[in-house]
Amino acid sequence: MTLTPSHRPALAEEITAKLRDMIKSGEWPLQERIPAEPELMSTLGVSRGTLREAIKALAHSGMLEVRRGDGTYVRANSEMSGAAQRMYLEHTQEHIVEVRLGLDTQAARLATKHATAEDLAEMRRLLALRHDAWQAEDYPTWASADWEFHERVALASGNPLLHQLYVSFGGVFHNDLLRQQRKEGFNGIPREGHDELVDALEAHDPDAAVQSVYRNLDFCADQAPR
Questions:
Q1: Euclidean distance between CA atoms 213 and 10, whole angstroms
Q2: Does residue 31 contact residue 174 with C-beta atoms inside 8 Å?
């Protein structure tokens, strides 16, 4: 009997996988600098060349960003998110809102079937946090709560791929919220696509859920630069 020889992955690929796992696990938070080369070389037991090859691969995927003279920072917690962030830079805000419309409406429609009582309670908690933060002019907390609310709706859709795609928009949506907040007369706590949406999910009403999302994103589209 002839056995097929097993091929051990190149060391750089193994180190790339280890670094990727550290990022995905949250051991290295987003936007934070990872440990310096000497520390990583010692921890992983590899040469500088192997480490740099692994970091280069993750930088190419968009998960890491190498800043000369400063260090290497975590830019995204998955290859999908990293690729999405690079891709979004090539498109207008109007195009991004149009893509988000597709994701938001499908997430809302599916969530009317799959959202649990726990999902609904967490959505309402996030909306209360969002409201209080807006009133207190704590805009970073407001933007984070708003984004986490929409991500929770995507999670409640019961479709893990849709949720993963939605999460890839995270940095873009968060920054866009903060940009919109600076517009005079901007309403940071609309019921459309938020409180109304949770009511529709609780009532298992897909049409009402989708219409609420449309009303919210029509407003977002009006805020997008032309």
A1: 48
A2: no
Instruction: Pick the closest to residue 224 from 44, 98, 83 (CA basis).
Output: 98
Residues 141-167: pLDDT tens digits?
998 899 899 999 999 999 998 998 888
Instruction: Please state, in angstroms and rounded to a whole number, the distance separating the CA atoms of residues 59 and 53.
Output: 10
Q: How far apart are CA 128 and CA 9, in angstroms?
A: 49
**What does the alpha-carbon distance between residue 68 and residue 117 come to, in Å, rounded to a whole number?**
48
Size of the chain in residues: 226
pLDDT single digits (tens) 99-118: 788 889 999 999 999 999 99
Give this prediction's pTM: 0.68
d(C-alpha 146, C-alpha 38), whole Å: 40
Which residues 6+ apart lie within 8 Å of 169 measured at CB? 84, 88, 96, 100, 103
Convert the pLDDT of each residue in 34-65 to its tens digit: 999 999 999 999 999 999 999 999 988 888 88
Structure tokens belonging to residue 100? 């988000």
DSSP letter for 9, please.
P
DSSP string, 131-183: HHHHHTT-HHHHHHHHHHHHHHHHHHTT-HHHHHHHHTTHHHHHHHHHHHHTS
Reply yes or no on whether the pLDDT at 91 is more than 70. no
Can you tell me the distance from the alpha carbon of 109 to that of 94, in angstroms, rounded to the nearest whole number? 23
Distances (CA, A) of 77 to 21, 30, 54, 112: 9, 7, 16, 29
In the chain, what is the greatest distance between 2 CA atoms, to the nearest angstrom? Answer: 77
Provide CB contacts within 8 A for 98, sequence distance 6+: 221
Report which of 146, 157, 152 is spatially closest to residue 122, judged by C-alpha positions. Answer: 152
